[in-house]
């Protein structure tokens, strides 16, 4: 996985967090990230896809998360919520990307941004979403081993 794509995910988590907390216009936040050079080492088009894709598909993403989180999605820690929403977006809409890569990236984001131990929570939720939404891919992978 490219570092530029990892950097795009990190910036998207920060931008989604800002959007969740402020309700600010998405385009204003994106312009701010560009102006502050926060996307310098990031894959800019992937950042834009994630950052705009999550709000665009928020209802479906939150519905998928709701099946497995232990409280209403809006009550999940805002950092974890941003990470879970971003990773759930990738699991649901980026079928070209292996589910294990997405889960691993989500765990790393939680280790980087989240509270101690939040990566375990994120891992558990993402694994359950993958089992539900990527069952064919998981079975195919298991058959190869």
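^ Assign residues to that structure.
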């Amino acid at each position: 996985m490219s570092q530029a794509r990892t950097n795009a995910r990190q910036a998207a988590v920060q931008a989604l967090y800002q959007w969740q907390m402020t309700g600010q216009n998405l385009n204003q936040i994106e312009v701010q990230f560009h102006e502050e050079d926060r996307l310098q080492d990031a894959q800019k088009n992937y950042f834009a896809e994630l950052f705009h894709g999550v709000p665009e598909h928020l209802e479906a993403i939150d519905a998928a998360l709701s099946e497995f989180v232990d409280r209403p999605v809006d009550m999940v820690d805002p950092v974890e919520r941003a990470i879970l929403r971003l990773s759930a977006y990738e699991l649901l809409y980026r079928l070209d990307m292996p589910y294990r890569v997405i889960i691993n990236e989500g765990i790393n984001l939680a280790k980087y941004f989240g509270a101690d131990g939040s990566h375990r929570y994120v891992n558990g939720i993402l694994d359950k979403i993958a089992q539900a939404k990527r069952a064919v891919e998981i079975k195919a992978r298991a058959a190869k081993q």
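Residues 3-144 form a domain with the N-utilizing Substance Protein B Homolog; Chain A fold (CATH 1.10.940.10).
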